[in-house]
Design brief:
Number of helices: 16
Order of helices and strands: HHHHHHHHHHHHHHHH
Structural class: mainly alpha
Oligomer: single chain
Organism: Streptomyces benahoarensis
Number of strands: 0
InterPro entries: HTH_67 (IPR054058)
Protein name: SalK
Pfam family, one: HTH_67
Length: 289
Amino acid sequence: MTSAISLAPRAGRHCHHVVNPFHSTHYFSPDLGAELAKVGIEDRSAGYFAVRAAAMGAVGPGTVTATFYNFSHALVARHVPAVWDTVTPEAVLEARLRAADTTLRRLLGEEALASPEMAEAAELALRAAEAGTRYARPLFAAHADLSVPDAPHLAYWHAATLLREHRGDAHLMALLDAELDGLEALVTHHASGRGMSYLGVMRTRGWTEEEWAAAQERLRGRGLLAADGELTEAGLRLREDLEDTTDRLDRAPYERLGAEGVARLTEIGGAFTQAAMAAGAFPAELFGR
């Protein structure tokens, strides 16, 4: 294994940040809604819970809340396990892959999908993902049991999914160690100026304004949030410590690639993500402050 010393600080984090959106394109795609409607899922929240949890099987609301972490359990329980009365996890996974295929073809075009760079991105990302560990990583472990698609763009999308869930599972360990519950994690992340906007969070995560305000008060009591809703110095340090801890727990895939491999995946993965974003992959109103 390549030594971690050979990697620049935060190189793995930077690589993740350009690879992860390639996976996420399908969540905001009309193609996913269309494919899920064909198998009987009309509600957007039910669809999200189903496509992300399906690799774990027909799990209940407790498992989804535990592994997704920042969604209101009330919202989860509104759709899970009822969604499995409509469709099997296997059918959801097939619909998801079809949606990813259609979405990427529409956003990037056939030439990009058939390019040598796409095949190279798939090879690098899959090699990185092979170094991921299943222990205490339920979403990564479940997706690691799925077959790798044959088409290079779908193989890359699958690998991006694995890398996303590997880091995500690690991040939940860091959040739990920092004693942040799911909503407190959202509030501090929002206050850092990263991630979803307040509108996006409230529209998709199922929390009420009263619950948001109560979480803010708890964070103020810990000295992490100022009266104006911004992070204090202690809050900023905590958020950076969280990312550093996540980097440490997520380092194995990037150590496997080494400095040159990480730099190359960051370069070509970033190009594909930028092209997808330029094509309108993500709704602007759901991100930012």
